[in-house]
Specification:
About 60% of the residues lie in helices and about 0% in strands. It is mostly helical and about 160 residues long. The protein has one domain (about 5-135): Ferritin, core subunit, four-helix bundle (Ferritin), CATH 1.20.1260.10.
């Protein structure tokens, strides 16, 4: 029988999959200039993969006696509604890299629960693949920053 920690960690995996930035972009519908429509199709493909795996994670949480928790989108995502898809692809890459780090922590935490760890490992591999997929898109060269508070530049007065 999975422990409460296992269920909590699986719910963290579920939250990462279900409230990722690509998930938000599907709902937020960013500005897509002519010729960039394929970028949104790539995002939709990513979301379809996340949703399929999230369903399996949800099922395991439920079968383990827990309640699946898909989490909520971070409030900072709402600041992206009017931004161009090129910028948002770069943001997606940055945020998915953070998801990779978080999923690595989940995989490690589930080392005593093989079935749960297998799903977390699958989520990790899927997310790494999504980063690679987005990195191949021919976005306009722009500076990307991670959404949310930014540290002050050193040496500025």
């Amino acid at each position: 029988m999975p422990t409460e920690n296992t269920i909590n960690t699986l719910n963290r995996v579920l939250e990462i999959l279900g409230s990722s930035f690509p998930q938000y972009l599907v709902w937020g519908r960013p500005h897509i200039p002519t010729g960039r429509e394929s970028f949104m199709r790539t995002i939709e493909t990513i979301v379809a993969g996340q949703n399929a795996l999230a369903e399996r994670v949800s099922r395991l949480v439920f079968e383990s006696g827990g309640l699946p928790d898909h989490g909520n989108f971070p409030i900072e995502f709402t600041d992206t509604h009017d931004l161009d898809i090129d910028f948002l692809i770069a943001e997606s890459i940055d945020l998915l890299r953070q998801d990779v780090s978080d999923l690595e922590t989940c995989v490690d935490a589930l080392r005593l629960a093989p079935a749960a760890q297998s799903l977390a490992s699958e989520a990790l591999g899927l997310t790494k693949g999504h980063v690679e997929l987005l990195e191949k898109l021919p976005v306009n060269p722009i500076a990307s920053t991670v959404i949310g508070p930014k540290p002050a530049a050193a040496g500025k007065h």
